[in-house]
Amino acid sequence: MEEDDVIEISSGESDHEHGYTERRAILEPAIRSVVEALGGYEGKTYRMGDEAYGCLKDLKKYWRKDDTDDERTVARIFWATRVLTNDLVPILVETAGKGHVEDKRAIACADLITAMTWPIDLAEELKELDDEVDRGTDYTLLLQSHLYYKAALLRPGVMQALFNIMLPCLAKDVKERKEKDVQIINVVLHLVRNLAFIKDLPANIHLSSDQINFSSLQSQFIRILSEANYLELLLTIASNATTEAMFNGWNTLVLEIFYLLFRGVKPSSLVLDQAKVKLVSYSKGIQSKVTMQQTTRTLHDLLSIEGQRRRNFARYAPSRHSRFGTTISVKLNPKKNADPSKGDKGPDAPVAPPEPSASQALILHRQQGLKKEAGTILDLLKRQKTQKGKKIDELGREDNLSIESRTALQNLARSFIESAFNPFLASLLKDIKSERPKITEKDNLRLLFVTKWFLEFFLAVRSKEKNVGSGTSPEGGPWGFGLVGEVVERGWIVWVLKRMNGAIEEKPKMWTEWQAGIECLTQLLALIEAMSASQSLAAGEDGAELHDAAETLQQQLIYNGQILDAALDGLRSYKDGTQSLAFLHASVHLASNLLKMLERWGKTRGKGAYVRKRAKPRRKRRARGTAAGEQDGDEEDEAEGQAEKEEVVEETMFTFDAFLQKFANADITHTLLTYLSRCRGFTSQESMKRVVGLMHRQVVHAKAEGLYFQVSTLDLFKAILADQTSLPKDQASKDLVSLIKYILRQFFKAVEADSFVLIEVRSSSPETAPRASLTLLAHGAQAFFPKNRGQWKKLSSWEPEKKSGRAAAPEDTRFPPDVQVKKGYTWSEQLAIVVAALHDAEPDELVEWVKDILKVVIEQRQRIIEETDGAPVKTENAADAADLNDDELKEKLQAKGPSNEALGKITDYLIPYISDEQAEAATKNPQLKLLFRLVKCYIQDDDADELEWYIPAGILLADLQRGLSVITQFQATPLDLNGKRAQQLLSKT
Question: Where does this protein have compositionally biased stretches of type Basic and acidic residues (predicted)?
Answer without folding.
Answer: 336-347, 799-815
